[in-house]
Design a protein that fits this description.
The protein is an alpha+beta fold. The protein is built from 3 helices and 10 strands; from the N terminus they run βαβαββββαββββ. It is 17% helix and 29% strand. The radius of gyration is 18 Å and the shape is globular.
Amino acid sequence: MGHGGTARPRPDVSITPDAGISRTSLLGFYKSCHRLVGTIKWSAVSPLSRALGPHGGTRSSIDAMTDWFARPVLHVASVEASLRFYVDRLGFTVAWQFDEDGRVFVAQVDRGSCALIFSDQWPEKVGKGLMFISLNVEPETYDAAVAALDALRAEFEARGAPVKDGRWGYRLLVVEDLDGNQLFFNYPNEPSESIAGLRVR
């Protein structure tokens, strides 16, 4: 469902290699629908962006006609192994995958409004990714946000996912995948806290 409860159509996806692109290039993208998981919505939008509001600064006229949807590409050694990790350990679902000759080259996983793409095309970039993820909770209170992160941590630990504490202006729940790519889940700051420093233990 999109914002306001309106369903977003999913366009057809065709996998057709272009003359200037290898068959293992990043293909098969589609625009996912936003989904609520209970009362928690995963979001790739930073708290700073939400604070600035929808306009941020000067708004382009095209913004009135389009809805941006961003997905990071995490570079991994094995797409198949990453799919198993994110599904089994972190509770994602497989949205799509592109395979050839029995091998998966590119795939996407979703959980809530968070979508991640995996690719093994650039081995020199493996394990260098970082994703900042916020949980939008209802009601939007400090206590509810802390409880949601604590519950998520308990879920990850029960699934056998590696979790640790960190800090990057916020207290963080940090998950590192098989290749060293990191997911930062931020706890809310208390009203008296200031944003300062980066420290991951």
